[in-house]
């Protein structure tokens, strides 16, 4: 029987399985430390398209096809698709998965969207609403820069606190079909706003939300930090990680030996000049698909807390001088 745990979490009685995944990335990611682990890389960041936005849609479609193909599942067998991206009205998702003709829920959780999609997919399977759910997210450096900052041709100087948006898409098939990875629980995050307004320092904006969700997960499930082999955040980067450690220690938790951040893992900070690290919906998604899940599948990590983080801003809120709230969702992944 599924159980409501504490104030924000759910423990699944019959845990849904994370059956398969697909990862698609661009040229800069293909030059990074995880290069050989991705399913598909492309030196042309346009992916055969005419615009950055269309390229991002193409990545989403390819990631979904890869995830379905690995499990030998057709789109017709997928009950619902949960997907999102960073663009206005989620056009990368709606245009990318259109051909699959799967009933879809469009999501926006900024860079935490992969966690939101996985949580809703797992909850839907555990509730008996279908045998297969598909979760997909994406981001693209070119489309994100044009959406939130400046056109690439503007050549603006990036501060050291800035992140590099990952060009990538990750898709995940969640269902009742047994695999070596199960989603045993989720902790849905709250919006946490410390009043920060610097969109070029998203690590600082997101770290409070990450700390809040991680602590809530530990309290709801009555666990200790040591009960996880890794606590993985989405894209806090080097700046956000330091803040996360300080916030956690202030509450009596030390996660330094267990923590990993996808934004710090996907790029070589110095060699690739990515400043604070990677970000974007695709950052946590492709790192989970290519690097984290294989380790869980092999049993190297028995239990992982996957915590994608998001900075909830828009061009409208930025132009109006609003703060940048953060959010983080936690997914408990276990080897089985």
UniProtKB/TrEMBL annotation:
InterPro entries: SpoVAD. It holds the Pfam family SpoVAD. This is Stage V sporulation protein AD.
């Amino acid at each position: 029987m599924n159980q409501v745990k504490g104030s924000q979490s759910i423990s699944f009685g019959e845990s849904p399985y994370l059956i398969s995944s697909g990862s698609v990335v661009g040229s800069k990611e293909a030059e990074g430390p995880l290069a050989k682990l991705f399913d598909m890389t492309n030196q042309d960041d346009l992916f055969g398209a005419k615009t950055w936005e269309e390229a991002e849609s193409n990545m989403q479609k390819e990631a979904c096809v890869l995830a379905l193909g690995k499990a030998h599942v057709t789109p017709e067998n997928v009950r619902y698709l949960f997907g999102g991206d960073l663009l206005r009205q989620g056009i990368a998702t709606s245009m990318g998965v259109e051909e699959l003709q799967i009933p879809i829920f469009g999501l926006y959780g900024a860079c935490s969207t992969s966690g939101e999609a996985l949580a809703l997919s797992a909850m839907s399977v555990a509730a008996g609403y279908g045998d297969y759910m598909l979760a997909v997210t994406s981001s693209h450096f070119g489309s994100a820069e044009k959406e939130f900052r400046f056109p690439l041709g503007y050549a603006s100087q990036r501060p050291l606190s800035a992140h590099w948006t990952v060009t990538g898409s990750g898709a995940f098939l969640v269902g009742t079909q047994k695999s070596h990875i199960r989603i045993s629980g989720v902790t849905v995050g709250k919006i946490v706003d410390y009043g920060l307004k610097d969109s070029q320092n998203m690590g600082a904006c997101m770290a409070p939300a990450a700390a809040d969700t991680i602590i809530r997960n530990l309290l709801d499930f009555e666990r200790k930090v040591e009960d996880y082999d890794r606590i993985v955040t989405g894209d806090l980067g080097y700046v956000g990680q330091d803040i996360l450690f300080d916030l956690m220690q202030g509450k009596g938790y030390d996660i330094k030996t267990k923590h990993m951040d996808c934004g710090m893992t996907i790029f070589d900070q110095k060699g690739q000049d990515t400043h604070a690290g990677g970000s974007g919906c695709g950052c946590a998604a492709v790192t989970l698909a290519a690097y984290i899940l294989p380790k869980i599948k092999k049993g190297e990590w028995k239990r992982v807390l996957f915590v994608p983080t998001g900075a909830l801003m828009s061009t409208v809120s930025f132009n109006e001088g609003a703060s940048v709230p953060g959010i983080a969702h936690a997914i408990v992944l276990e080897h089985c």
